[in-house]
Amino acid sequence: MRHVGVSLVGAVDWSKRMIKIASMSLDTDLSFYSNHLKGIGIVHRITEESGNQSIYVANSENLSEAQHILDLYLNDQIETSSTLVEEKLFPTNVNLLRLFLETPITICIIGLTLLIAIVTSLGTDLSVYSVLLYPLVDTSSLLASLGELKSVLALTKTVTPIFLHFGELNLVFNMLWMWYFGKQLEQILPAWLFLSSIILISFTSNTVQYLVSGYNNFGGMSGVIYGLVGFSWVFSKFQIKENMVITNNLFIFFIVSLVLMEIFASSWIATAAHVGGLVSGLIIGALYIFSNRFLSESKHG
């Protein structure tokens, strides 16, 4: 079951369709409690309201059970095993239809990328993949480049390089990370926000790479991955812990990896795309958190 999304227009409308069971301090870590509810199929939402975190359930028949589990959790009478998180991300019994309904955007992006990898023979057939390359525009300045992007086709081609990969390892790693971050974020964010964020990150990372390198024969999902890393870190840092997508250690791993790639593999790694994606993801994440809190405070103030 997909979580009820929070849109930037009417940010708390979803609360009218769910039942509030508790409200408590932001210092209380409800992440394992939330994972336990997900593991037993109780659809719920934990969100910030007026300086506290509130717990909602979607169905009235789950109300007493969720309250009972909360009491056990707060009294340390429930197992807080990390295996619940692993089951959520990598389920052993996969219902393909349900999986697609929960994460259609992520699955479509991965599916399209794999299809293009097959059609282009992993980037070895230039005659096929040239249509996906960034448009050849003026590289003298950002404004000059943007000024030449006047058609829908040209704008589309600023995004399509993300689907192009030039090696098996690059493809596999990017798809694994796309699944890791995409699956979680798509179930938390409104669909329009998740998709538009990916498009904006793609445009930014590809444009930065093109302006820095001066050529358009590049591709890959790495810039998007780093954008999702940035967005996820801001989201996990400043949002309720129930929605933890990335830990500080994992974020540091990506930053260290970026530095090492620049030092040892800058000649064949699109570092500028990574940096552009990361920065754009951080900015989008900050704008999302700020907008949500502003709308929430406006409603209660």
CATH architecture of the largest domain: Up-down Bundle
Strand order of the largest sheet: 1-3-2
Question: SSE string, helix = H, strand = E?
Answer: EHEEHHHHHHHHHHHH
Query: Largest sheet, described in full?
Result: 3 strands, antiparallel
Give unreliable regions as ranges: 1-14, 81-90
* CATH superfamily label of the largest domain: Rhomboid-like
| Shape annotation | elongated
Structural class estimated from helices and strands: mainly alpha
Report on the architecture of this protein.
With 301 residues, this protein is mostly helical. The protein folds into two domains: 13-89, Alpha-Beta Plaits; 96-300, Rhomboid-like fold (Up-down Bundle). It is 58% helix and 6% strand. The protein has helices at residues 31-39, 63-74, 83-89, 96-102, 104-119, 126-129, 142-147, 152-157, 168-188, 191-213, 222-238, 248-265, 271-300; strands spanning 19-25, 44-49, 52-57. α10 (191-213) runs antiparallel to α13.
Strand and helix layout:
Layout: E1 19-25, H1 31-39, E2 44-49, E3 52-57, H2 63-74, H3 83-89, H4 96-102, H5 104-119, H6 126-129, H7 142-147, H8 152-157, H9 168-188, H10 191-213, H11 222-238, H12 248-265, H13 271-300
Antiparallel strand pairs: 1-3, 2-3
Task: Jot down its keywords.
Rhomboid-like fold, 301 residues, 2 domains, mainly alpha, Alpha-Beta Plaits, 6% strand, 3-stranded antiparallel β-sheet
